[in-house]
Design a protein that fits this description.
- The complex is a heterodimer of chains A (about 250) and B (about 325).
- With about 250 residues, chain A is mostly helical.
- Chain A has 12 helices and no strands.
- Chain A has one domain: Up-down Bundle (Ferritin), CATH 1.20.1260.10.
- Chain B is mainly alpha-helical and about 325 residues long.
- In chain B, strands 1-2 form a two-stranded antiparallel sheet.
- In chain B, helix 6 runs antiparallel to helix 7.
- Chains A and B meet through helix 1, helix 2, helix 3, helix 6 and helix 7 of A and helix 2, helix 3 and helix 11 of B.
Amino acid sequence: MKWDTCDPSEQYLLHLGDDALVLGHRLSEWCGHGPILEEDIALSNLALDLVGLARQYYQLAAKRIGGGTTEDRLAYWRGERDFKNHVLVEQPNGDFADTMARQFLFDAFHLLQLEAIEQSPDADLAAIARKALKETTYRAQHSSEWVVRMGDGTDESHSRINAALKRIWPFTDELFQPAEVDRIAAERGLGPDVRTLREPWLELIREVLAKAQLSLPDMPQKLLRGKSGVHSESLGFLLAEMQSLPRAYPDAQW
Amino acid sequence: MAPTIDMEARFLDYVTAENKVEPKDWMPEGYRKTLVRQISQHAHSEIVGMLPEANWITRAPSLRSKLILLAKVQDEAGHGLYLYSAAETLGTSRDEMIADLHSGKAKYSSIFNYPTLSWADMGAIGWLVDGAAIQNQVMLCRASYGPYSRAMVRICKEESFHQRQGYEIMLHLAKGTQEQKDMAQDALNRWWWPSLMMFGPSDDNSPNSAQSMAWRIKRKSNDELRQEFVDKTVPQAKFLGLSIPDADLRWNEALGQHDFGSIDWNEFFAVVAGNGPCNSERIEARRKAHAEGAWVREAASAYAAKQAARRSSAAATKPQAA
C-alpha cells in the first residue's frame, strides 16, 4: 500500500502515532539498564504509556483507512520513508542526560500539542488527546525534575545535562516548522498551527532551565524533514530491529 | 545452660507454632544470614532475570505483545525492589547486596545464564521459568519471616499473570505456522532441563534444606517441588502439542506421579560456578548499568542535600511569629 496516498487526516494520525511509538521504543531500550532500579521502572512506565498511545492512534487510523489495515500493519510494515515522526524522537538514547534532554524538550511540546488536539472537532482524536494529557503531564514533570536535579546536582551532572541539551537542541526547530501534514491538520482544525507553539514552549523550557541553573542552548538548528519521511540514519536500524519478526515470518500471527 | 541456647530453643518453638518473625524480634544469627542470602539471591534473580527478556522487548512481534512483555519485565524490577527492601529489614543495605552481586559473591538463579534466542523463548520463560518460580514462591508466602512472606504474597499474584503471558505466547505459536511450531518446540527443548534445575540440588545433596525447613522458611524439599512442577507441566505441554525432551518421562500409576529422567548435575554446577553460556554477559550488563548510573545517583543525592539545606536555612532565617 502506498501510505502517502491516504487521506491527510489519516496521515496526521500516523504522524502522531509514529512520534509516540518511536520515542516509546527508544525508552524501552533502557529496560534492565537504568541508572537505578526506581528509574528503570519509571523509564519503562514512560515507554508503556507512549507505546500505548501509539496503539490508540494507529487503531483509529487503521479503522479509517480500512481494507483490513491493523495497528500492527501500520507499525511493522511501513518503511523508513513512510514514518512521519520528528527526527528528535528517534535520536539514540546516549547517556541518561541525553535521554532526559530529549524527553524534556519533547514533553513540553507534546503537552502543548495535545492541549490543542483536545479541542479538535474530531471526537475520537480529541478523546485520545484528553486521555494522553494526563500521562503527558506526568512525563513532563518527571523529565523536568530530572533536568533540575542534574543541572543543580553535581559538577559532573551539570556538565552532562548541559552538553546533552546542546546536542539535542538543534533537533527542536522541526517541532515548529509546519510540514504538509501539519498544515492540513491545522486547516481542518485537527491539530495546532505548530508555529504558534514555539513561544509557549520556550517559556516552559526557560522556566525549568532557570531552576536547573542552566541557560538556553544557543545552537544553530538543523534542517530536518522527518515529518515528510526524511529521517536521520538511526531510524532505519530502529525499524529493522523492531520489524524483524513479522517481516521474517510474513504468514505468522502472533 | 547458656542463655543463647535457650533463646534458640524458644525461637524454634515460636516458628514451629507458625508465628511470624518481625525485623525487631530476636533471631538466631544463622536464621538472619540464611534469610539475607536467600532473599538477596531472589532479588538478584529478579534483576538479572530482566536481561534475557529485555533482549526481546525491541523485537516483540506486535504492539500488544511489546506492551505485555515490557510490563512483565517492569514487574520484575518491582519484585527486585520489594525483595531488596525485605532483605534490608535484616540489616544489610541494598548497596552491599548489589556489591556482592557484582563481585560474584552473591548468586542468582542460574537459569538466567542461558541465552534467549527466539521469540518463543519469551513464551517458554513465562511458562516454565515463572511456572517453576511460582511453585517455589507459593510455599514462601508462608515463610516465617514476616516481611519476606508479605513480599512473596504480592509477588505471587503478579507471577501468575506472567505465567499466563508465557503460556499465551506458546499457545499462539503452537497454533501457528510450521515455523512457529518448530520455534516453540525448540524453546521447550532448550528451557526444560534448566527449568528443572531451578529447584536446586536433589534433597540428599542440599545441605541447607533441613535447617530452612525447621525454621519454617521452606516448607517443601527441592525434590518435592520439582515433582509437583513436572506433574503440573506435562499436561500443559500435551495441550500445546509439544513434546518434553525426556525419553524417560512416563506416568507412574503406582505413585500417581510422573517418573522423569535424571538431571545433568554437572551442567547445573558448571553454570552455578560461572561457566554457563551467558554468566559473564549478565554480570557485565549489571555492572555497566550500575557504573554508568553512578553520576545520576550522585546528582540526585547532591540535589536532595542542597534542597534540604535550603529548606533548613529558609526556616532558620524566617522571622519568628509574634
